[in-house]
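Re: your question about Pyridoxamine 5'-phosphate oxidase

S., sorry for the slow reply, the queue was backed up all week. Below is exactly what I fed in.
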Amino acid sequence: MDKTYEFLKKSGTYYLATMDGDQPRVRPFGTIHLFDGKLYIQTGKVKDVSKQMHINPKVEICAFMDRKWIRVSATVVEDPRTEAQKSMLDAYPSLQGMYKAGDGNTEVWYLKDATSTISSFTEEPIIEKF
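Result:
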């Protein structure tokens, strides 16, 4: 999980794919955080992405950086604990104008049953499962 976290953190922006019925939806994300030994993302409960993940928690993440790319397939699990939300928001203070831990809107999700592959055209893939 360490290489996955480092790649996503350094890339700054990654793309999260969810399913909306039978239509895939992809959008940029920027939150990636380690908490309690798990890799977390964050969104707002009022957003479509949240509704989609509640219906179908299977997601994929993709990012590109320095002639390498990462693909992560995982199941997301919502963590309702305010301490998990607070930890995320402390790591991303720019979000604190829109989100507050325990506000009823802030959601944090950890990646479960994840397979991450970092690829390039010149090196062997790096695969992590967590």
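The longest helix spans residues 2-11. The longest strand covers residues 106-120.

Happy to talk it through on Thursday.
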